[in-house]
Specification:
Strand order of the largest sheet of chain A: 2-3-1-4
Order of helices and strands of chain A: EHEEHHHEEHH
Distance between the termini of chain A: 27 Å
Number of helices of chain A: 6
Oligomer: heterodimer
Structural class of chain A: alpha+beta
Largest sheet of chain B: 3 strands, antiparallel
Helix content of chain B: 40-55%
Shape of chain A: elongated
Distance between the termini of chain B: 19 Å
Largest interface: A-B, 77 and 80 residues
Number of helices of chain B: 6
Strand order of the largest sheet of chain B: 3-5-4
Shape of chain B: elongated
Order of helices and strands of chain B: EEEHEEHHHEHH
Helix content of chain A: 25-40%
């Protein structure tokens, strides 16, 4: 049961298969942003990011290498417990997941339900400390509230100077949230 | 550039940082102790005072899972991963971060190798730049909404339920009084 689940931070760190780093880099760069992103199909997701970390870097002395080889860091904020989120990711974005994590070591593929969730769970980082500005809000609650705020602003402008009877009638006939 | 309902320009997009810093030998132990303390006393994080932080997350990575029979890493990495998502230009964000919670920054990143201290914004900014990784793909469900906008919208939505109920049962005069009160409290949020 995941209804009403608070925002949860989920981070997964997977080693990239040697020789496929450039392919994955190019693929991540080619993913469409915003509503065309594959993660837009997951209605529990507030924020998702994919970052290539570690491995050799092209700027000498820029940083100590925290990880000896390239890893893919996937992190997401969603109103789901991790296991339920991984299953939602697999069943909703299976082809996209295969294209992304197919460049990572020992990835079992989205077709193997249990193995997929196990793979993600095995590579999940335990978040030691998190902060959420709106810990209990879902994506749909935030989107609805943003839309309602706009409607209220317009209503306030249109209702300026009207008498109480007219104000009440207008509110009843509008009533954005009802 | 987009505009909100009042015609004020809003930011075109929100930002995010992914920063990995190598930890000193005793760094993980000291950090874990701090994280336990902030679980007991959440105000120690200090982030609740910022109206630009959507989300922040700290991970201590001291080992990586072995997959198959390949040796992934020879040594334990011992690093701290910091991920943050915010609604501000990055420079003012770091500036307010440094000014607002310099002591917290020093406590947390003081466990990382090479941390130069939080005495100036430029020093912290350089350190973050040095250890930040480019984000390959970033998805926001609400890319143009700021933390402040969402806070306002949620506050308006809470009061809207009350107004809706009042509209069903109040006289016009009672409702007008309630609505004026709503505008006084929430006018800045619209």
């Amino acid at each position: 049961m995941t209804a009403g689940w608070p925002q949860t931070s989920i981070s997964v760190l997977t080693p990239v298969t040697r020789g496929r780093e450039a392919e994955l880099h190019d693929h991540l760069r080619s993913l469409p942003p915003d509503e065309k992103s594959p993660f837009a199909r997951l209605d529990s997701v507030h924020l998702a990011r994919l970052v290539l970390v570690g491995g050799p870097n092209g700027v000498p002395g820029r940083r100590r290498k925290p990880l000896a080889r390239r890893h893919l860091l996937f992190s997401v904020v969603a109103n789901r417990p991790p296991e339920a989120f991984f299953e939602e990711l697999r069943s909703t974005c299976g082809a996209d997941a295969d294209r992304i994590w197919g460049c990572c070591n020992c990835y079992p593929g989205a077709g193997a339900a249990t193995a997929f969730v196990d793979y993600m769970e095995t590579h999940r980082l335990p978040a030691q400390q998190t902060y959420f500005a709106f810990p209990d809000a879902t994506v749909s609650q935030i989107e609805s509230a943003l839309a309602l705020r706009k409607q209220h602003a317009l209503f306030a402008i249109s209702a300026q100077g009207v008498d109480p009877v007219e104000l009440l009638n207008r509110f009843r006939s509008w009533d954005g949230g009802a | 550039m987009t505009h909100d309902t009042a015609g004020r320009p809003t930011r075109p997009a929100n930002g995010a940082l992914t920063v990995i810093t190598p930890l000193a030998r005793r760094g993980p132990v000291w950090l874990k102790a701090q994280f336990i303390a902030t679980r007991l006393w959440p105000s120690l994080k200090g982030l609740q005072h910022f109206d630009s932080v959507f989300f922040s997350n700290w991970n201590i990575i001291t080992r990586l899972p072995a997959v198959g029979d390949e040796v992934i890493e020879r040594a334990s990495p011992r690093v701290m991963l910091w991920e943050v998502a915010y609604s501000a230009e990055v420079d003012p964000y770091i500036e307010s971060f440094v000014h607002g919670i310099a002591a917290n920054i020093k406590r947390i990143w003081g466990t990382s190798l090479g941390f130069p201290g939080s005495s100036s914004v430029g020093i912290v900014r350089d350190y973050i730049d040095k250890h930040a990784w480019d984000i390959g793909h970033l998805y926001w469900a609400y890319p143009h909404a700021t933390v402040r906008t969402i806070g306002s919208a949620l506050a308006v939505a809470r009061e809207h339920e009350f107004l809706t109920e009042a509209a069903r049962s109040s006289t016009p005069e009672e409702f007008a009084r309630l609505y004026r009160g709503f505008l006084v409290r929430r006018g800045a949020d619209l």
